[in-house]
Specification:
The structure holds two protein chains of two kinds. Chain A is built from four helices and three strands; from the N terminus they run H-E-H-H-E-E-H. Chain A has a three-stranded antiparallel beta sheet with strand order 1-3-2. Chain A is globular, with a radius of gyration of 16 Å. Chain B starts with a helix and ends with a helix. Chain B has two domains: about 70 residues, no CATH class; about 230 residues, no CATH class. Chain B is an all-alpha fold. Classes of the chains: A alpha+beta, B mainly alpha. The interface between A and B is medium-sized, with 17 and 23 residues.
Amino acid sequence: MAQRRELIKGSIDSLLLCLIDQQPIYGYRIIKELERRSQGYFKFKEGTLYPALHRLEKAGLIRGEWQTLPSGRQRRYYHITEKGLRSLVTERSQWRDFLAAMNLIIQPEST
Amino acid sequence: MLTVLSNYLDSVRENLRLDRSLESEVIHELETHIEDELQELREAGLSEEEAANNCLKLLGSAKVVARQIYEAHSQGSWSQALLAAMPHILFGLLFALNWWRGIGWLLGMLVLVLSMAVYGWWRGKPTWLFPWLGYSLLPVVAAGLLLLYLPEGWSWVAILFYIPLALWLLYSITVKTIKRDWLYTSLMLLPVPTIIGWFLAVEPVNKLPEHWLQRIQDFAPWMGLTFLALALTVATFIRVRKRWLRVSVLVVSGLITLIMVAYYTNGKLSLPAFLILIVVMLLLLLSPALVERTLRHTGQQSAA
């Protein structure tokens, strides 16, 4: 469990950038989407999502914007920035290389 | 919102130590998250109380969330670090380049320091303000000390009017700074032990003013060096994210600058004076944390 937590912690920025790249999204929805798409694998303390979002925003990779819904409730939607898009391209390519290398070792081709 | 959740948000707010606008934005965002979470849990059939307790569990520790958000925002840019270090650099140059003898330089410094302090205070107290604020209070203290040297009778004017007024000003600025974040008070008071150390080494008591001036002249390059060391400390403080690292930077720097004062004055600062200065330094840098706790406790009691 602790190992999984460490893995999630190391990849949270990439996960967030990927989700935000697909559509502007707010914190609560991010948690639900991560859980749904990973079939429950990505589950973490919800409060710790916001430090990660704020860190990405401070780095200029995403931008938060308050929106008022027709119901009158407000939500902070996150949008990806140009810098965030560039960073995501690099991170995706690094992930592909990493996964390919891991697979070569974990699932070696039978000779 | 239920009391447990309000308490959770209050606890996050207390530990955030960010500026007011950012703080309310963070709290509002968490509030909207809690509202969504509660609605979903209620729709799943949980009672109000069960939903609130589940929500708390899902959110995790308020202190951890606040600390991590603080660390996301705490690091200042290099330009902010330079701006915060600037009063120490200028003070260092004042001595290192012997500008302290020119009244023009002194007046220029005074105007600059006061202007920056007023501007920063007016602009919502950004982190770079506090070193400037510390230096802006120096003339207030210095004027009080000089008034005590006035001819007999006049020093009573200082004791009765000026000193209470100056103390009130110092107290009110310190309390306001502590309410923002006690670490900024420590940042503001950082040069005080060094200044006291040099003041003691110059020995301005029972000697002629020419003697003090000569002493200052002799020590000036080393005085400059200690203030430049403080500038480096402030720049490091602004650039690090973690609070415990910030506290360590201040304490270690306070210790190093006092050692520098003792070393460069060739024994003019006695061992007892040096040890007392270390205690004063620790008190000045760390007591704001206790004052902050007391102020919060008092605030909570009066709110209850």
